[in-house]
Amino acid sequence: MQSQSTTARTLYDKLWDSHVVRQEPDGTALVYIDRHLVHEVTSPQAFEGLKLAGRKPWRPGSIVATADHNTPTRDWDQGIRDPISRLQVETLDANIREFGAKAYFPFLDSRQGIVHVIGPEQGATLPGMTVVCGDSHTSTHGAFAALAFGIGTSEVEHVLATQTLNLKKARSMLVRVEGRLGRGVTAKDIVLALIGRIGTAGGTGCAIEFAGSAIRALSMEGRMTLCNMAIEAGARAGMVAVDDTTIDYLRGRAFAPQGPLFERASAAWRLLASDAGARFDVVVDMEAAAIEPQVTWGTSPEMVAPVSGRVPNPAALDEPVRRTSLERALHYMGLQPDTPITNIAIDKVFIGSCTNSRIEDLRAAAEVVKGRSVAGSVKLALVVPGSGLVKRQAEAEGLDQVFRAAGFQWREPGCSMCLAMNDDRLEPGERCASTSNRNFEGRQGTGGRTHLVSPAMAAAAAVAGRFVDIRTL
Amino acid sequence: MEKFTILDGVVAPLDRPNVDTDAIIPKQFLKSIKRTGFGPNLFDEWRYLDHGEPGMDNAQRPLNPEFVLNQPRYRGAQILLARDNFGCGSSREHALWALMDFGFRAVIAPSYADIFHNNSYKNGLLPVVLPAAVVDELFRHTVATPGYRLTIDLAAQKVVTPEGRAFGFEVDGFRKHCLLEGLDEIGLSLRHAEEIRAFEARHRASQPWLFD
Predict the structure, then answer these.
(1) A155/B122 Cβ within 8 A
(2) Are A345 and A377 in contact (CB under 8 A)?
(3) What is the mean pLDDT of residues B7-12?
(4) What does pTM read for this prediction?
(5) What are the pLDDT digits (tens) for A218-234?
(6) Least packed by Cβ within 10 Å: which of A39, A104, B76, B114?
(7) Which residues of A touch B34 (CB under 8 A)?
(8) Residue A300: its chain B contacts at CB < 8 A?
């Protein structure tokens, strides 16, 4: 084993090794950054810092920017009415105007959208890249065998100024999912089941590679959902090796290489997989067929149960910190111990976010909704496409009509009610079936109660007014 | 960045695991384009009984008397004692700006989420990791002893209790150096500009599709 570990490398090893500019004796490495995704919320202070220090971006051609967190999802003809939000979006406009970028998709642009949706769909995320963004869900881009991770604003400034980051290499974790997923079970359910098993700190300090036959069978959209929520398992990054699915997705994308250069790049990309015999620090094995549709019941993504399950009972826990935490979560969520998941009624439905707003997600939800109606008890059911391109594709397929006919609202792209910075939010006490990624207290609005599910499960909940097992429909 | 050398401060206990950055600073305050002024909205949803929005006069808002930071005995606290996985969730550095604007200079917890942990060093807030059993004990002392203080000595990598007990902690050499000296990390990295340029040229030659 010893000799293997020195020669056989993981995908993460390969991505790391190919970007180290220099290394300090304590292991801290200066790592080169290929792609810098920028949005309005975490960049203004970085650009300001750059200006105050009299510095310029090292390579504006690495920057792809959009406004997504703070933009409204309706009445676009009226602009951004909240003056504080408007100033933030205009600040991004001004910064990109001053410093430049490879591409900018501002508010109202037909290609604008959630930064983690537009990067891949534009071919701006490529295998073998290091990709960073001042947003924790940057892990999404690891689906392309890129080393992609979220950073804070100080690091945004550091990347702007130096095209590098000071990093320490993470530990490696292999999550191997073998077999076939059951009908109605999706990438979202895999990752929620994983988080339920290892916890929200289970991946802390690790870069996760997802592998196995169930992962290879996923589309790029599914792999993005999976890697997107690697951060919810506490991991620094999530990634999937390159295969035909990756290459086929990228061919012909706007910023992907074209013609002979694409073929040359593809040949290099195909090497982006862990070598046989590569050693991982942690290995987690999961059986695809055993994974049920998942529903979170608490205030952390690890508080999750299969749809056939029940809300847990704190009385069953001995450990005081965990018991108190569970009691607090149930109190916040307004749930009684031992309640069957399918007895939980909902007030609102949100289909969207960087986790689940791509075309495949909307198709899955529309398939459930088709010919049915949103339950009368549901106050609001929203579909927020991940980007302008996703929206137009869905409209070309008639999905918007399916949603509207059922009583859903069909909105403009953006982060929307995933984090509720704009007007899309829960009111205190409202309960939501949401395809987003975080069920923290107040995440979707002060006092709001979030249950994380897949798009099909959210659509089914909209129709029934409570959670239902998608497999029984 | 402000230097961090020795801190002697009042400890405030926040006794819950998985405190996320949405709780530390709710999203509505992320609309600001500044780094300052986040302190009054630190833990906004736990700290106040009403719903907070930017631009409100926070001094007029009803406080939640049960929230630990509203208790007079923890006034002026500079050290936050916390549980596992502190700072999980969003990468928002506003969480650090809020903690520091409020007056905190260090957190002590058994573990942190990676991005928060990283952001802390960039802002001069020291995230001390101590074993869960030690943190447990510090919680008991803090709750039992009004005005309980700890001394954190970064150079010696020690947390010292009023009774003189010392608990060592780990810190990366590079980060320790930056904190002790209050260094501008960008300036340090730019000292390697030639190496970055040379790397970039090789990288571009071997994978031209990564560049424009």
Answers:
(1) yes
(2) yes
(3) 98
(4) 0.97
(5) 999 999 999 999 999 99
(6) B76
(7) 45
(8) 18, 20, 88
